[in-house]
């Protein structure tokens, strides 16, 4: 107990203070109802998203504002490493790879567009994050590589080198970054799973494992929605790209049937077995089309993950749970905020914006 107190007391107070400043639902509603993007952004003054207000006022560029804000959030998260022991720090680094891999995927997309599609990417380069997050790699070397071989070489001495090396040829043959992106996502979850099992023990390990599996559930169910409705994939192809953890992987035959036949039987029960989240009332029995059913299941998984993250905040205070809850809740807040702002940028009506959240 003493060691846990010493390890997490400061972090607990620090992160609770940050989370207390999260954007309230009422303010998000005001932003949704705002008559313009500028009016929506004005609501962010004096909040943790104030960086967006400042940068947008200077540049008029929402993507630049989003980048600067995200860089600030990445720093605030990775700086936690200095306050914890090495084992907990390794888990934080593994979580921070999500930011790094998302940025790397953006780099590879620009390489793909420039080299293989012959497109002009000059206006998009400035939106990349060039600062080191966890591992050192050069965005410029990646996007200016002249071939798949040069792309592979640009990532030498990083954990991503063998991943890109094994999937680059498939990317060229398929004329798609999908093989590389899928492999990078799988690396993120496999690496985080390994760090949780290696670096943590006792209550910390149990809490982290539960949140990890719920997070994988959200990712896998989101993939099912995209694969079915946007890529029109057959089940066998789609499920080869499923992250091999969580409830979808554990019940793969059942989820394949749902994917193929839009059959919800048993899926809700399988999800709700993992949580006491009050989400059964969200079920829409009139959701007949396959997109609505898959999207509904994905939203249920998201609600369960957020419910468990909030439970951690009011549970035992001196565990790694506070770090995981902060990571999950802050990402959800950023996702919602940027969805609202981007929707405002495209002049979406309030009802449509609310439906996206």
Number of helices: 18
What is the percent of helical residues?
Answer: over 70%
* Main β-sheet description: none
User: Cα-atom Rg, whole angstroms?
Assistant: 21 Å
Order of helices and strands: HHHHHHHHHHHHHHHHHH
pLDDT < 50 stretches: none
Whole-number mean pLDDT: 87
SS content category:
mainly alpha
Shape field: globular
Distance between the termini: 40 Å
- How large a portion of the residues is in β-strands, by DSSP E? under 5%
Find the count of extended strands (DSSP E, 2+ residues).
0
Tell me what the structure shows.
There is one protein chain. The chain is an all-alpha fold and 357 residues long. It has a domain of 118 residues. The longest helix is centred in the first third of the chain and has 31 residues. The mean pLDDT is 87.
């Amino acid at each position: 107990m003493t060691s846990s107190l010493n390890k997490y007391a400061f972090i607990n107070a620090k992160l609770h203070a940050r989370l207390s400043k999260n954007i309230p639902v009422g303010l998000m509603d005001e932003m949704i109802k705002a008559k313009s993007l500028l009016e929506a952004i004005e609501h962010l003054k004096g909040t943790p998203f104030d960086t967006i207000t400042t940068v947008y006022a200077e540049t008029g560029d929402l993507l630049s504002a989003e980048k600067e804000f995200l860089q600030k959030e990445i720093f605030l998260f990775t700086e936690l490493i200095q306050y914890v022991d090495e084992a907990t720090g390794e888990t934080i680094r593994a979580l921070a790879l999500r930011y790094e891999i998302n940025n790397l995927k953006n780099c590879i997309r620009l390489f793909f567009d420039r080299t293989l599609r012959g497109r002009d990417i000059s206006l998009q380069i400035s939106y990349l994050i060039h600062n080191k997050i966890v591992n050192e790699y050069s965005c410029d070397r990646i996007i200016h590589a002249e071939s798949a071989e040069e792309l592979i070489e640009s990532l030498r001495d990083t954990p991503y080198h063998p991943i890109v090396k094994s999937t680059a040829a498939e990317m060229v043959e398929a004329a798609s970054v999908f093989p590389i992106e899928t492999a990078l996502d799988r690396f993120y979850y496999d690496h985080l799973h390994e760090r949780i099992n290696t670096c943590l023990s006792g209550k910390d390990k149990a809490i982290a494992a539960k949140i990890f599996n719920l997070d994988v559930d959200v990712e896998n169910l989101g993939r099912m929605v995209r694969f079915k409705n946007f890529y029109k994939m057959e089940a066998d192809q789609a499920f080869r790209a499923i992250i091999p953890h969580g409830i979808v992987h554990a019940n793969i035959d059942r989820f394949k049937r749902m994917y193929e036949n839009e059959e919800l039987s048993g899926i809700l029960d399988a999800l709700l077995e993992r949580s006491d989240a009050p989400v059964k009332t969200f079920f829409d029995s009139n959701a007949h089309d396959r997109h609505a059913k898959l999207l509904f299941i994905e939203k249920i998984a998201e609600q369960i993950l957020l419910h468990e993250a909030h439970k951690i905040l009011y549970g035992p205070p001196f565990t790694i749970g506070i770090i995981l809850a902060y990571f999950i809740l802050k990402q959800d807040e950023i996702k919602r905020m940027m969805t609202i702002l981007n929707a405002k940028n495209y002049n979406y009506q309030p009802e449509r914006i609310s439906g996206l959240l």
